[in-house]
Amino acid sequence: MPHKILSVDDSLTIRMLVKRSFKNFDCLVCEASNGEEGLAAAAKEKPDLIFLDITMPVMDGVTMLTKLKENPDLKGIPVIMLTAESGRENVAYIAKLGVRDYLVKPFKDEQLIEKAGRILKLEAKAVAP
User: Fold this and answer.
1) pLDDT value at position 42?
2) What is the DSSP string of 41-55?
3) How far is CA 102 from each of CA 40, 71, 92, 129, rounded to the nearest angstrom?
4) Please, what is the end-to-end C-alpha distance for the chain in angstroms?
5) How many CA within 13 A on the CB side of residue 119?
6) Closest CA relative to residue 32, chosen from 55, 62, 3, 10
7) For the chain, is the Cβ count within 10 Å smaller at the N or the C terminus?
8) Chain-centre distance of CA 15, in angstroms?
9) How many other C-beta atoms lie within 10 A of the C-beta of residue 78?
């Protein structure tokens, strides 16, 4: 059964990058463009991992993460934050919120896969003969 990954980012480019990064793995990537959509998608899809941007319209990533951790059905989902800010205070703050890891934008496909691989057992898709 494929792993479900939820990518929550207001940037279509970032969401496409996440999807492309996992195309060779047995993963299903769902998308949301803000925290409100992300919470709804997390409740519906019950993903195995969430990549979550911090700065978004409607509901930012910190608010979404806080609401996620308050929900007994969703609080166990591992979250990797995506941020453009790499300052020590910012990283310390998001760590306190219960994220498993973070990535500073811009990042490479390999970095996404490496971070996800620490949480999920990623398996290459079987190639049809």
Assistant:
1) 97
2) HHHHH--SEEEEESS
3) 22, 21, 11, 38
4) 20
5) 21
6) 10
7) C
8) 10
9) 17
CATH number for region 3-114:
3.40.50.2300
pLDDT at position 129, please? Answer: 58
pLDDT, position 92: 73
Divide the 129 residues of the chain into consecutive groups of 10 and give the mean pLDDT of each group. 93 93 93 96 96 90 92 94 72 78 87 93 74
Are 77 and 42 a contacting pair, CB within 8 Å?
Answer: yes
Q: How far apart are CA 9 and CA 97, in angstroms?
A: 18
**Where in the chain are the domains?**
3-114
Output the pLDDT for position 123: 86
